[in-house]
Write a structure and sequence with these properties.
The chain has eleven helices and 16 strands. Strand 8 and strand 9 form a beta hairpin.
Length: about 400
């Protein structure tokens, strides 16, 4: 079992400058490798550029530029080239699947924030001073950086990454652990229905209200974004002090909302995992749900468009993003795996339109957002609760089919 840990770093001024230089040089390596692949394609090269070919060039690149590339970890640079190779693999996969390709793009200095080290001890060393009461991590070319370790790391550390978020630095570890003992069985099964008004409703009739952290911080974010928009776009090294403060303010507000959303997701998922042995949820296609409506050209007026509900859909998309369903479901699956619980995703179609009493399915069964009233048998309940009950039943059927 692999578990990730994330700790805040406390670098000195010199170490922060070295970490920034390391990111910049890895970004330059990434962009150079991308340019090489683009040139090979444009010139009609019969041999495609692969990760193996670019990794073999690293030795010459380090010898040619020892000041910028030669001082960093060889394995870390290989991980950066492998990241580019994964981007191209995903690009070709999307082409074959008929999806929007999304060709890999060059990274600016503010869009390259992570350097990976594939193995602890190769270019980096976690807990590099074990006899020191203060935990430190060592990076090649940077030194021993102090770590604010707020919880112990169990298992063997496999990979180490350094990440920049705004003006803060973090170290991310992955550790290999033995499978923990499962939590005691509760004999309870539950289905959950995700929503916007209520974050989730379960099959027992309970509701978790949506915290709406993004909406609560909207006024402050809007003011900070307006203040930032008054400055012309410049590279980080060319910004004035006021410009940089405006950038930091926006990043700080977004970071706070993100941490609040993660905290809520962790607590809600932990409650579900502790109280239930089996959890069923809707298999939501969040990316499809948050797509913008297709424009409708006006046949009578060329160049004009008919109303397509884009404004209302934009508000719904913001609410979906603010709810953070994807993050919550990822956390729920991870916690369930650690606790020995079972989580199953089911088809969400008609879960809120099917009567749990008689099985009648019709659009008219849900006259409003919150109300369910079966036109066949007259059963009345909250629409989200009905959806959660149907999700639970579908999950139990799927579990029994898998076991059989």
């Amino acid at each position: 079992m692999i578990r990730a840990y994330k700790f805040l770093l406390r670098p000195t001024v010199g170490q922060a400058a070295a970490l920034t230089a390391m990111l910049a040089d890895h970004c330059s390596l990434y962009n150079g490798a991308l340019q090489e692949r683009r040139d090979a394609y444009r010139h009609g090269s019969k041999t495609s550029i692969t990760y193996g070919m670019q990794s073999a060039q690293l030795k010459d690149i380090r010898a040619f530029d020892p000041e910028r590339q030669g001082r960093w970890s060889f394995s870390g640079q290989q991980a950066t080239l492998r990241r580019l190779d994964k981007a191209f693999a995903a690009f070709f996969r999307r082409i074959k699947a008929g999806e929007t390709p999304g060709y890999p793009r060059f990274r600016g200095g503010n869009w390259f924030d992570t350097v990976d080290f594939p193995k602890d001890g190769d270019g980096c060393r976690w807990d590099s001073t074990p006899h020191d009461p203060v935990t430190r991590v060592r990076f090649q070319g940077v030194g021993h950086v102090r770590v604010n370790q707020h919880r112990p790391v169990t298992g063997k550390v496999k990979t180490v990454s350094v990440k920049r978020e705004g003006r803060k630095w973090f170290v991310v570890l992955t550790a290999e652990q033995t499978q923990p003992d499962p939590l005691p069985a509760t004999g309870s099964a539950v289905g959950i229905d995700m929503g916007v008004v209520n974050f989730l409703a379960d099959s027992n009739g309970n509701f978790a209200p949506s915290p709406r952290h993004g909406r609560k911080a909207f006024a402050k974010l809007e003011a900070a974004q307006q203040a930032l928009s008054r400055f012309p776009r410049r590279k980080a090294k060319d910004r004035t002090a006021n410009h940089q403060r405006a950038v930091d303010k926006v990043a700080e507000l977004h970071g706070k909302v993100r941490r609040q959303r993660l905290d809520h997701a962790h607590k809600t998922a932990l409650t579900l995992v502790r109280e239930h042995d089996f959890i069923a949820h809707e298999d939501l296609k969040i990316r499809n749900m948050s797509k913008t409506p297709t424009p409708k050209p006006d046949p009578d007026r060329p160049g004009s468009f008919l109303p397509n509900g884009a404004a209302a859909k934009a508000g719904l998309n913001r609410s979906i993003a603010d709810a953070g369903w994807g993050v919550f479901l990822t956390i729920l699956h991870a916690k369930a795996e650690s606790a020995g619980r079972e989580v199953i995703a089911v088809d969400p179609r008609n879960t809120s339109r099917r009567c749990p009493e008689c099985g009648h399915t019709a659009k008219e069964n849900r006259p409003t957002q919150d109300t369910f009233h079966c036109v066949a048998c007259g059963h009345t309940a909250h629409a989200d609760t009905v959806g959660a009950v149907n999700v639970l039943r579908a999950g139990l059927v799927r579990r029994d089919a898998n076991q059989a």
